[in-house]
Design brief:
Layout lengths: L6 H25 L6 H23 L5 H23 L24 H26 L1
Helix pairs in contact: 1-2, 1-4, 2-3, 3-4
Family: Belongs to the DsbB family. BdbC subfamily.
Keywords: Chaperone, Disulfide bond, Electron transport, Membrane, Oxidoreductase, Redox-active center, Transmembrane, Transmembrane helix, Transport
Membrane topology: Multi-pass membrane protein
């Protein structure tokens, strides 16, 4: 049984996730005027390039992007996890976040921004795992 390659769909999904996360963070800071804290900036450093890199990889159908996007997502996801812990347990974590916006500030308590970022990083990381498997199967 011949099945259609999964790689283009997975790559497109990962790119859309990165693009939505990037545009979402710009919406929060530029439209809603939420000032990003220091950890927010670090998360952006690991998400924004993925919107470009995954878009280029999709356009070129380049499956070799997976280790780079996976690395960026794992580091960014770790920062998001740390940021969530800072928000949930501000007395236990005294990170390098300084005024004017401490990292413990929650603009959207029902669905915290670091949780949104973590979900995006996890979705991209899982997509890159699938892409790596597909790339290995292609040889």
């Amino acid at each position: 049984m011949n099945r259609a390659p999964l790689a283009p769909v997975v790559l497109a999904f990962a790119w859309v996730v990165a693009l939505v996360a990037t545009l979402g963070s710009l919406y929060y800071s530029e439209v809603r005027l939420f000032l990003p804290c220091e950890l927010c900036w670090y998360q952006r450093i690991f998400m924004y390039p993925q919107a470009v890199l995954l878009g280029l990889a999709l356009w070129r159908q380049d499956l070799t992007i997976w280790p780079y996007a996976l690395t960026l997502s794992l580091i960014g996801g770790s920062i998001s996890t740390l940021h969530l812990m800072e928000q949930r347990f501000p007395d236990l974590f005294t990170l390098a976040c300084k005024p004017p916006v401490p990292c413990s500030v929650e603009y959207i308590p029902q669905f915290p921004i670091p949780l949104q970022a973590l979900i995006a990083f996890l979705l991209i990381a899982l997509s890159m795992g699938l892409l790596a498997r597909e790339a290995r199967q292609r040889g």
